[in-house]
Structure prediction request, 704 residues.
Amino acid sequence: MSSPLLEVRNLHAGLKDKQILKGVDLKINAGEVHAIMGKNGSGKSTLANVIMGREVYEVTQGEILFEGKDVLDMDPEERAREGIFLAFQYPVEIPGVSTSYFLKAAVNATRKHRGLKELDAAEMIKLVKEKMTLLKMDASFMNRAINEGFSGGEKKRNEVFQMAVCDPRLCLMDETDSGLDIDALKVVANGANTLRRPDRGILIVTHYQRLLDYMKPDFVHVMIDGRIVKSGGPELALKLEKQGYDWVEKEVAVTA
Amino acid sequence: MTDLKQFTDFDTQLKTAGPAWLGELRQRGVNRFHKVGFPGARDEDWRHTNINPIVRGSFDLAAAGSPELAESLVQKYSFGEDAAVELVFLNGHFSAQFSKLGKKCAGVTIGSLAKAAENSAEMICPQLGQHATIESSPFVALNTGVISDGAIVHIARNLTFEGVIHLLFVNTKPATNPAVSHPRVLVVAEDNVGVAIVETYAGDSGRYWTNAVTEIVCGKDCRIDHNKFQQESRNAYHTAVQHVRLDRGAQFVSHSTTLGGLLTRNDLICHMAGDGAYATLNGLVILSGEQHCDNHTLLDHAMPNCPSHELYKHVLDGAATAVFKGKILVRKDAQKTDSKQNSKGLLLSDRATFNAMPALEIYADDVKCTHGSTTGPVDDEAMYYIRSRGVSLEAARHLLTYAFAADVTRRIKVEPVRRRIETFMAEQHGLPQDLRIQDLASFDEDVL
Prediction:
């Protein structure tokens, strides 16, 4: 049997003086959509960033396997080329560099790594145009500096757009729904939905149910204090939306 | 004790060259320089720049030298078709051979200062030395003391000069002793004039010293775009003082770029002498190795309702050092002044240093003045963001360095200047030349 797309085992990680993840176990198979829900500070964004390889976090224990390969010794760029993509909660503004150049550099770094021919300008344009339509984006996006002066919604849309262009195996979406009005949410969610594929896994990190209305997950996990304490199907997200997190906390306290 | 005479007593010919009034001006410069000498180590304005290599050096007055020696340099830095007028100076001497004077038009005088001093004294005499006074700096006094040639740009009222005026000062490697040139530029724009001027100071090797002084007089409602691009030899010394006077409603934009020189000191004094004048001072400094650059700017708000914006950025690698001292002076009458200053240093090495000293001196009560400064390596968050898309650490750093500088270069309107800096950056950082963000209008054809 082939290995799962992503397997996180007993992951402990944190900042220098603060433990944040205290033993996370998570398995995502190709074709699945998982959602991790939890309160602020529960560690769900940290998990996404540790999987991506953000260097401020130190992994003290456990493993992260991507397609069976240990990624803990890989730099973020190596993980990206292997097929992991993180849509940022707060995308960074980079004045002075156009989105078009940035995307071309990103796409070709990954293609080179996979032994594919680098895309030339014309091929890049074709790819980009197609994905822009998907996210109802204006062509001028490409020639603007990366995220500079973008509204919150534009930035999130740009993240999902880049995700579509980069063609990853594993999509990590870190609070992609925050800061979006309902129309923008629909566009972003519908765009992300088209990325569901049998050979691709998606991990959605979110506070709220509303994104999941449009992107129905196969599995929902609840994270409390650095651990996944409860897992279930989409109905779990609905229950959390209605009843909050208190009942889970109580349940965990009883079993502990 | 330094013998100051060796800096002024070059030959007797110089003393008598040109009209009598110029000789008198020269003598006043010499006297002043002999009286005050070079700034000392205790002089607050010179605390961060060691000028001993100049003070203790021995310099011959640079000769024009052979055109053959200069030809490749002139070619490299010429704007070619991009300049409407290009005056070329070889080691400070006007070169008719390399210059392009453009077509004559009424009300426009662009040419050699020495010649104009002879033929058009009424145009030069009332302005020369009136703005960059010999009292303002020992380096101005010295330049004035040996003044011989340079450029004059004089544009009569209500004229908008089409195209770019390029003043190209090329310095060749001195044959034996280090050499010094003291170029002088005078720009007089009468009321309601529009013009774009570039001063380029360039050299490729050798130890020499350029001590330049520029005076720019902007009449009422002028629109002046001034660019100074410095890429001297990396063994050269470059000291430059620029005095600008803005009359009512005049708009002045300055872009100062320093890429070359071992030791550079720029003083830019902008005197807002009329109601509603508007000054924008932008600067970009890119240094490596042992290079040092010290930029001092003064925005002197003397009249009300004047906005001013200042942005100076520094990219420092190796053991390079940069100093930025930006002073905003708001005099008693300068109510409703709106002044914003920002300076930034990007340190690409642990040994590079950036020293920012904003200074506000405010005597009016109804003003808005802000200043800010940041220094540090490339931003971690931005590095992570770029790397998370598959771009290597090295490439991400190059990209962010380019982006840091592009924040200034994109404001430059004179295309050949902007292109030169972008090419320099791209070459340094192994990036393609087509990184520029296109204008939106041309987007559809060019990008998609």
User: Anything to note?
Assistant: The longest strand of chain B covers residues 160-171. The radius of gyration of chain B is 21 Å. Residues 378-448 of chain B form one domain.
